[in-house]
Write a structure and sequence with these properties.
about 90 residues, mainly alpha, about 70% helix, flat
């Protein structure tokens, strides 16, 4: 089977600017706890899409929401502490 690609795709498919930079990869790594917590929250919501949520479902959603918020707070606090000179809060 021969795949037909446009000339633009063939020219830019392996261009350097298509790859994330080290700074972008570091930012993704720092945000990974928030991303994973959001995925867990989405999973908890997806489970309840086709049924009435039980008390256990509600508890799971509440805990996942709290973890997501805690991960966001930790990320913001980490960013704030890195931006303040001298480590002052």
């Amino acid at each position: 089977m021969n795949h037909i690609v446009t000339v633009q795709d063939a020219v830019t498919a392996f261009a350097d600017f298509m790859e994330p930079t080290n700074a972008e990869l570091d930012a993704i790594e720092q945000e990974m706890p928030v991303i994973l917590a959001d995925v867990e929250l989405l999973d908890a919501h997806i489970v309840t899409l086709d049924r009435t949520p039980t008390e256990l479902d509600n508890r799971r959603i509440r805990r996942a929401r709290n973890r997501a918020l805690a991960a966001r707070v930790a990320l913001v606090n980490r960013a704030a502490s890195m931006s303040l000179p001298g480590g002052a809060a």
